[in-house]
């Protein structure tokens, strides 16, 4: 029992660290935030299909990424909550491979545009931001996420022994 808790904590920490590294990498290309964003770290939101440790890992990773990349405080809060909601939804849909990536897409497409409009006073309308954020999330969560799913599913019993 104790080893399983340690394993889940280590998995969560590794997922958070990978999320931060990927966000830092993509922010070098100005794609981690703004009206047009393809945060490749969001591909990791498929991980709750494999382990519940991904839920806190993704939340903490997003929180740290938002803090470390200089996001405004309300963006840190609401952006991280969007990722948390998405991760919980993915876990809830973990038995449905093709539906599992949808919760983070929906959560970010609904929440992030309001952050862009009201926190950053970005030029554009909420529907425009929903379109641009939504497209970026589909690329990150669905396209890249499903590629990651395919690769990890082949090694599921090795990487995610506890499940």
Summarize the structure.
Helix content is 67%, strand content 0%.
Q: From the coordinates shown, what is the CATH architecture?
A: Orthogonal Bundle
Q: How is the main sheet built?
A: none
Average pLDDT confidence is 92
CATH topology: Arp2/3 complex 21 kDa subunit ARPC3
Number of domains: 1
Low-confidence stretches: none
Q: What is the tally of helical segments?
A: 6
CATH class division: Mainly Alpha
What's the Cα radius of gyration? 15 Å
Strand content: under 5%
N-to-C span: 13 Å
Note the overall shape: globular
Order of helices and strands: HHHHHH
Number of strands: 0
Bin the helical content.
Answer: 55-70%
- Give the structural class: mainly alpha
Report on this structure.
It comes from Roseburia intestinalis L1-82. This is Queuosine transporter QueT. Keywords: Membrane, Transmembrane, Transmembrane helix. With 163 residues, the protein is mostly helical. The chain has one domain (2-159): Arp2/3 complex 21 kDa subunit ARPC3, CATH 1.10.1760. The protein has six helices and no strands. The protein has helices spanning 2-27, 54-68, 73-92, 102-118, 126-153, 156-159. Helix 2 runs antiparallel to helix 3 and helix 3 (73-92) packs antiparallel against helix 4 (102-118). The longest helix has 28 residues, at 126-153.
